[in-house]
């Protein structure tokens, strides 16, 4: 079932010496697609199913009647978040519900895969424009009978009860698309997986179970992503953006803020 986050109030101008602005950013309905899967045999031994709002990726040779292991992503419906121009970030929001059906399988196992989410972005009262965001999953399939298990259960108690847990990490891809407020490129940055009331960077998934977590995220600058959270220094192999504007408009709010969406080269 698709979950509906609460819609937030209208544009608010907060009074401060710097005249900080709080701006609504509205995302339309999301659709999803699994791309660029890599499996342990060096190829792509996966299959896809489901719908564009609930895409499913499956892999592995089943070791039991439960079938293959799989990822499912349930997209959020349209929602609005508030962007603080002085902090250059938004409130944290739910991006969607992720489920790893962790069934006993034989190789080939999943190594990595990308999730492309397509939606629209509207800044303030400006016209919405289409945009695509790309997120990269890294999957560590561990031997079920290892002793000790590779990952302890201190952050997720009981996760190794049915055999050793797998580990999943998720990041915003360098090849994602951006939109611009002022002179800064912004995109969606992953904050982590919310498991119950706990937020974790790496999601440990229990064997012989459907493991569900909420993927939480926020709007932040693209530079913060490519420099590892805003630290100084320039990483290697950062893709050069294609400066193809989807929309370029003036946002007349305390001197005006320019907004556009720019598409970065997507991997083939």
TrEMBL record:
Residues 41-67 are annotated as: Disordered. The keyword Signal applies. InterPro entries: Choice_anch_K (IPR047995). The keyword Disulfide bond does not apply. Residues 1-20 form the signal peptide. Transmembrane segments: none annotated. Residues 41-54 have a biased composition (Low complexity). This is PEP-CTERM protein-sorting domain-containing protein. It comes from Photobacterium ganghwense. The lineage of its organism: Bacteria, Pseudomonadati, Pseudomonadota, Gammaproteobacteria, Vibrionales.
């Amino acid at each position: 079932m698709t979950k509906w986050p609460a819609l937030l109030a209208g544009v608010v101008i907060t009074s401060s010496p710097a005249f900080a602005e709080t701006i609504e950013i509205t995302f339309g309905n999301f659709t999803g697609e699994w791309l660029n899967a890599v499996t342990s045999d060096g190829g792509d031994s996966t299959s896809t199913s489901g719908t564009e709002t609930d895409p499913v990726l499956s892999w592995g040779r089943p070791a039991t009647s439960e079938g293959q292991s799989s990822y499912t992503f349930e997209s959020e419906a349209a929602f609005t978040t508030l962007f603080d121009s002085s902090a250059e970030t938004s409130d944290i929001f739910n991006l969607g519900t992720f489920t790893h059906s962790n069934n006993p399988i034989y190789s080939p196992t999943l190594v990595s895969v990308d999730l492309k989410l397509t939606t629209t972005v509207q800044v303030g009262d400006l016209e919405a424009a289409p945009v695509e965001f790309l997120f990269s999953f890294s999957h560590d399939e561990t031997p079920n009978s290892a002793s000790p298990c590779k990952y302890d259960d201190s952050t997720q108690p009981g996760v190794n009860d049915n055999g050793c847990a797998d580990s999943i990490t998720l990041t915003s891809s360098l090849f994602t698309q951006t939109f611009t407020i002022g002179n800064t490129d912004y995109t969606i940055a992953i904050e982590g997986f919310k498991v119950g009331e706990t937020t974790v960077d790496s999601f440990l998934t229990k064997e012989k179970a459907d493991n569900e977590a909420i993927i939480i995220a926020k709007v932040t600058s693209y530079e913060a992503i490519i420099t590892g959270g805003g630290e100084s220094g320039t990483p290697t192999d950062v893709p050069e953006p294609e400066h193809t504007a989807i929309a370029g408009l003036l946002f007349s709010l305390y001197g005006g803020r320019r907004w556009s969406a720019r598409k970065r080269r997507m991997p083939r």
